[in-house]
Amino acid sequence: MALITLRRNLCHLSDFRIHGTLAGLKTQRVNCVHKTVKEHLCPWFWSLQLEPVRVRFHHAHSKKFHSENGNDLHPVGEPVFSQAHAWDRSEHSVKNVDEQIFYRRLNSFTSSEQVLHYISTLQTLPDTMAAGALHRICEMEKKDDDQRLPKEILENSAFQALCNQFAQDPSNLSNTGLVTALQALTLYVGPQSRLLLSLLAECQHRLAMGSLDIHSLCILGECLIKLQGPGCSTLDLIIYQLQGENLEEFTPEDIVTLYRILQACPEKVDQHQTFLHKINNFSLSVVPNLSPKLLSQMLTALVVLDQTQALTLVIKLGKYVVRHIPHFTNEELKEVLEAFIYFGYNDRFFTEALEQHVASLCLTLDPEVVSKVMEYCSRKLIFSKPILNAVAETFVCQSEKFSPNQTAELIEPFGKLNYLPPNASALFRKLENILLTRFNYFPPKTLLKLLHSCSLIECHPVNFMAKIFSPYFLQQLQGEESYLDRLSLAQLTQLFLTAILECPFYKGPKLLPKYQVKSFLTPCSSLETPMDFQLYKSVMIGLIDLLGARLYFASKVLTPYCYTIDVEIKLDEDGFVLPFTADEDIHKRVALCIDGPKRFCLNSKHLLGKEATKQRHLYLLGYQVVQIPYYEIEMLKSRLELVEYLQRKLFSQNSGGHW
């Protein structure tokens, strides 16, 4: 490991004084380095009269610094630095700069100037620490659209000395110092920089010799992906060497880096699946040591690599995610939610932690995260009043922050989960104002889904029905396709039925018959939940016992109004049950809604919006609607109790029915 000495007012950068075994590497080598850095790191880098600095190298054995618990970050793996030991001294001795104190201080700095000032006070700096300082500077200065470091950083004498240490003789650098310096330079320096190419060449030489340790292989792999893309042949060699290593020797940071490397080439997932299976199984042991950032990165990699067979790992990650929810950044929380949506994961403790987090910080959360939280609740049918209320309040206060798509993602779950928040009037008044001013900014299908969701909770979009039933909008909705998709047609049909049944004052255009579906119960695009077959069998047995024969009720009856009734019973004027084949003397029709668990929100007795709308519409169409929920059937202990239960439901004193 090389040591760098930073002493002021002794000599110029061009006057290198080299001691020990490097005495033969004098002026000629240094002048070459000066030229390289001058030409490719910064055009004005060497045009200034620099503050005197002397750089001195010493040999030492390479040393790896890693976190033991997975939460304290080591100097080169993560772009944040270790905070392992409390530091109570500020000792700048050449040979006694404590590594832990150094990285603790680096992590505490908030600007590059502070880092540069700190390292300028040190007499000697090992190459690993110098690389860590360089990485920290580049990380803090990194801008999304800026590929150059600020001029004042490039002209800083301490920064120049850091760069010169790595440019002088890369072969004398430790593995850790070499790959960390390369990693830092990939943040800013172009791929054609001679300094970067020099470090990369040395890395490739050591790779070919098999002298890179596990951590260095991982860092080099990520650098190559950024510089040359996931298709570079050298990356295959790195993965091959990593496959030959004992996973027990990987730190938690290395495991996650390995996932990120494999994530960069998902097209090769079949080729690496055996290796991935080993990593997935081993990762179960490192999950407790992962930081919030590493947890989100591992989940994201599992999604990209489509590791649906690693559900045991996903479940364990989910348990530890609960502990870290308050510590996730907006981006990390979004990635966690995306992964849970992808894998279909849900957990009561995660929901509770998410409720507390959203309720306390919703006004400060990024709109994209708020939308993702709502998507998660919608996909998993999680009926959470704290989340829904907090999001409704956020939208009322900060609606201008949400894009049209985010607005739709935020509002749709209210309809799907059949919930009106306490501030519903303010919420939908705000939504109406947005639609009036930005109607044309909403993609047609997004707009249709949004308005349909509003109708499910009886917030009928009357002011916009004329627009969505117009030929112009229907043409936009169809786009370049030869026909409209089945789900859009079903939503249009149900909106039109809503206008007829619940908005009699609507006098606008009607939906043309060619855009109307015959049934809302269709595969993949259904506005009804199919009947639970096992629950239906139980109810059917009780009905036969009650009515005397299977002849007196019909199953899965498609009405002229597109809804499918689970069980229909016909009554005459005196309330007697008629055979289901009867077409005359029908005075009343009874619609039994046999509601299984899938017609309710998750782990609740709260009916979904589409099922509540169906029952509401059937009632408005003249049916006597009788709900048979699964949780009531499950309470019955005998066949006799079932018959008595059905008798009470169907033939109560108010119903006037007989059998």
TrEMBL record:
GO biological process assignments: mitochondrial RNA processing; regulation of mitochondrial mRNA stability
Listed PROSITE patterns: RAP (PS51286)
Cellular compartment(s): Mitochondrion
Single Gene Ontology MF annotation: kinase activity
Keyword annotations of the record: Kinase, Mitochondrion, Transferase
Stored Pfam families: FAST_1, FAST_2, RAP
Annotated GO CC locations: mitochondrial matrix; ribonucleoprotein granule
Primary location group: mitochondrion
Segments forming domain RAP: 590-648
InterPro entries: FAST_2, FAST_kinase, FAST_Leu-rich, RAP
SMART domains cross-referenced by the UniProt entry: RAP
Protein's name according to its UniProt entry: FAST kinase domain-containing protein 3, mitochondrial isoform X1
Lineage: Eukaryota, Metazoa, Chordata, Craniata, Vertebrata
